[in-house]
Amino acid sequence: ELRSRQEEAELALIKKRYLGIDKMERDDEKRRKLQKPSEKFRNIFNFEWDNSEDTSKEETNELYRNRVQPQLLFGRGFIAGVDVREQKKKNNFYDKLSEERQKLGIASGVTMVESSTGRKSRSSQMMMDSDDDSDYGTLGKG
């Protein structure tokens, strides 16, 4: 009996080799087929956002709960890349500053410096000196 089973197994292997793979084994090979890395990523990554996954909403630390807005120390006080009209609605600091200057009768920052110190600033003196020079061809006075 053992010999007959071995002979049948050998005959089955020979048939597979010469006649080809039967349909059941072809389906198994299709299932075992490896996915390409791009297809694998497409199946794994989920592009949809669920509100329950948002960890920034329920911050317990005081540092991260209250976000600090940037303090702009130059220009007109606008943040690059953000709509200017929206920023103007939220922040009217520049308008308040210009209104205060108009109330005080101060036209520009140079006159404000002059009035607070009682003397002219260096930049305004240099501008006045350059206006007095009638000969622009010479390098120095003489």
UniProtKB/TrEMBL annotation:
Pfam families: DDX23
Domain of life the protein comes from: Eukaryota
Reaction(s) catalysed (UniProt annotation): ATP + H2O = ADP + phosphate + H(+)
Residues in PRP28/DDX23-like helical domain copies: 45-103
InterPro entries, alphabetized: PRP28/DDX23-like_helical (IPR057479)
MF-aspect GO terms: RNA helicase activity
Name used for this protein in its record: PRP28/DDX23-like helical domain-containing protein
Organism per entry: Perkinsus olseni (Perkinsus atlanticus)
